[in-house]
Amino acid sequence: MLTAGVIAVQGDVAEHAEAVRTAAKRHGESVDIREIREAGIVPACDLLLMPGGESTTISRHVFGEGIDAEIRDHVADGKPILATCAGLIVASSDAKDDRVSTLDILDVSVDRNAFGRQKDSFEADLDVAGLEEPFHAVFIRAPAVDGVGENVEVLATAEGRVVAVRENSVVATAFHPELTDDSRIHGLAFFQ
Ligand code: GLN
C-alpha cells in the first residue's frame, strides 16, 4: 500500500484522489490518500499531487505552513510528484510574478496567463510522450512553460506552447488531467 498525499489548499482534491486510485489499480498497486494542509504529513507520503487553483493562494499556504521544505525534501529523495496547472506554477523555478513564491523543484519558467483572457478555457487532444493514444486535455486559465532547463523533458505542446514536462521524479501539466476519466497522466507520473 502506497501513501499518496494531495496538497489540499484548493483545487480538485477528490478528483485527483480518484485518478491516482484508478491509475494505481491499473498498475496492480493500491493507495491510501492523505490530504495535506499542514506540515508533518508529506514525509509519510510516497507520492504527492499538487492540484490547480490559484497559484498565489497555494504558494502562500504552502510556504506559510512550512510545507515547502518538506516538498523539496520529497523531490530530493527522488520521490514522485505530479503538479497541475497552478501546481505547475508553484513547482517552477520562476513564475515571473512577485506574488508567487516558487518551490524550484522543476527547472522551468512559466507564463501564468499564457493563453490569454479570450481563451479562458479550452480542450485539446494532445500527443503526450509516453502515452500511446492522445490525451484529452482540459485547460482552465492555463499557464504555459516558456523556458526549460537542460534536464527537463518536454512531454506535450498545445498551440506551439509547452504544456507538459518531466524532470526526474517531477511531472507537471498546464492542463487538468483529473477532470476526465482518463488516469493515464497519473499513471505516467507515478507508476511507469
Ligand atoms: N491562472 C491560475 C494561476 O495563475 C491557474 C489556473 C488553474 O490552476 N486552473 O494561478
Put the structure in a nutshell.
With 192 residues, the protein is an alpha/beta fold. The chain is built from five helices and eleven strands; from the N terminus they run βαββααβαβββββββα.
Description:
The chain has a single domain (2-190), classed as 3-Layer(aba) Sandwich (Rossmann fold), CATH 3.40.50. The strands form 3 sheets. It has a 7-stranded mixed sheet, sandwiched between helices. It has a two-stranded antiparallel ribbon with strand order 5-8. 24% of the residues lie in helices and 30% in strands. By secondary structure, it is α/β, with parallel strands linked by helices. The protein has 5 helices and 11 strands; from the N terminus they run E-H-E-E-H-H-E-H-E-E-E-E-E-E-E-H. It has helices spanning 13-26, 55-64, 67-76, 86-91, 184-190; strands spanning 2-7, 31-36, 47-50, 81-84, 108-111, 121-126, 135-140, 144-148, 153-158, 161-167, 170-173. Glutamine is lined by residues 52-55, 85-86, 89, 112, 140-141.
Average pLDDT rating: 97
Give the termini distance in whole angstroms: 17 Å
Strand-and-helix sequence, N→C? EHEEHHEHEEEEEEEH
* CATH superfamily descriptor: Class I glutamine amidotransferase (GATase) domain
Structural class category: alpha/beta
Give the strand order of the largest sheet, numbering strands 1, 2, ... along the chain: 2-1-3-4-11-10-9
**What proportion of the residues form beta strands (DSSP E)?**
25-35%
Number of domains: 1
Q: What form results from the Cα inertia axes? A: globular
Q: What fold name goes in the CATH topology slot?
A: Rossmann fold
- Amount of helix: 10-25%
Q: Can you count the beta strands?
A: 11
Uncertain runs with pLDDT below 50, 5 residues or more?
none
Distinct helical segment count: 5
Rg calculated over all Cα atoms: 15 Å
Largest pleated sheet = 7 strands, mixed
